[in-house]
Amino acid sequence: MINIAVCGANGKMGQQVIKAVNEADDMTVVARIDINNGEFATIKDAKNSVNIDVLVDFTQPKSIYENALYCLNNNINIVIGTTGLSDEQIDELEKLSGKQNTGCFIAPNFSTGAVLMMKFAQIAAKYFNNAEIIELHHNQKKDAPSGTAIKTAQLMAGVNDNLAAGNCVETETINGARGANSYNNIHIHSVRMPGFMASQEVIFGSNGQTLKIRHDSTDRECYMDGVLRAVRYTNEHKIFVYGLDNIL
C-alpha cells in the first residue's frame, strides 16, 4: 500500500485527488495538508506524524518550489501538478532528485488527451514554419502562460528552429497584443475568464492552409488517471520525470 499525502487538500484538485486515491486499491491517504483548515498545516507537520511514501502537490505557484525542496531533502517522493516553476527551478529539482535518490514527477498536465495534443503539435511543428498557442483557463489561475502551453512550446521548438518564418517586422500599438514570444518565436496567448476550466489550441499555418489542434478539459476527473499513474511510477522508480508523456 502506497501512503499518500495531499498538499492543497482542500482545493478543488486536492479534493479530486483524495477521492481518486480512496477509490484505488493500492494506495491510501495518510495526510491531508492545507493551510486552510487542513488535517496538517505543513508538510513538516505531516512528516512528523505519519509515514509518507508520495506527496501529491496541487497548491500555489509561490509555494511549490519550497515544498518540493523540502520533500526531496527529506526523502519524500513528490508528484507536482502545480504549475509556475521556472526552467531554472526545474533544473535544480532534477539535480536534487538525482542526488537524494528521491522521486520528483512534474507534469504540466495530467490529462491523457492534453498529452496527446502536445505530441500531435510536436509532430506538426516539423511540417509548418508558423505556429501560435492560445491557452484558456478560469480566472482564478494565477500563473500565465500555463505549464501546458510552455511544455507544448518546448516540444515544438525542439523540432523547429523558427515558428514565425516570413513574418514582417511588427509594431505593437498596445504592449502585449501579440502575446508572449517564447521558444523559437512561438507566440503564446493566455486567456483568463470565468466559464473556462482548461483549454488549449495550437494553430499552424502555411500558404493556403491552417491546422488547429485543440484540447478541452471539462471536468477535473480527467486528470486523475494520470495522477495515479505518476504516483505509482514515482514510488517505484524514485527518479526525476518531467511530463506525463514519458510514462505513457
Q: How large, in whole angstroms, is the Cα Rg?
A: 19 Å
Please give the domain count: 2
Beta-strand residue percentage? 15-25%
Q: Strands of the largest sheet, in order across it?
A: 2-1-3-4-5-11
Structural class computed from helices and strand pairing: alpha/beta
Helix fraction, binned, reads 25-40%
**What distance lies between the first and last C-alpha atoms, to the nearest angstrom?**
22 Å
**Element order, helices and strands?**
EHEHEHEHEHEHEEEEHE
> What is the strand tally?
11
Named at the architecture level, the CATH assignment of the largest domain is 3-Layer(aba) Sandwich
Question: Stretches where pLDDT falls below 50 for ≥5 residues?
Answer: none
Name of the top-level CATH class of the largest domain: Alpha Beta
CATH fold type of the largest domain: Rossmann fold
The number of helical runs is 7
Quaternary structure annotation: single chain
Q: CATH superfamily of the largest domain, called what? A: NAD(P)-binding Rossmann-like Domain
Mean pLDDT across all amino acids: 95
> What general outline do the C-alpha atoms trace?
elongated
What about the largest sheet? Answer: 6 strands, parallel
